[in-house]
């Protein structure tokens, strides 16, 4: 039972960490279509902003200024939280691989392997919370930005949605949290 639970948690943690990495690297955190004819599709991300022409599929991207330049708080905070979540999830995966019962590393000391799995669960939980805070922070800021524009009757034709990268970040963080719960609570 313990080995099956460890392997299940590892698979979920691996998939969720990949989701977190994809969310951090991709550029569709916020989607807006500037006109009702849907001629173009604009995605804003943490690293650049891309516009896709819906008629011919041509996509052009503008990189943001240097990483040291002044950026809006939502971009800086989300970048920081997502990169930290990625690093913690990667560290937790490496620790979890060494702590799995099916791996021969430290096979003679099962107590240490169990502690490694538990530690991996704690680190994975910390990473998942940071990733969820980053994803939700960005989503709330998108919502507030849209609400401010609507309340001031500015750009009523602009439609803001959460992009697939934002949803991917939330799904990855939630999956890492579930894997963390499996490793910390259910393993004993």
From TrEMBL:
Entry membrane topology: Multi-pass membrane protein
GO molecular-function term, one example from the UniProt record: structural molecule activity
A Pfam cross-reference name: PMP22_Claudin
PANTHER family the record matches: CLAUDIN
Entry's family note: Belongs to the claudin family.
Chain's role: Claudins function as major constituents of the tight junction complexes that regulate the permeability of epithelia.
Protein's UniProt name: Claudin
Native source organism of the sequence: Machaerirhynchus nigripectus
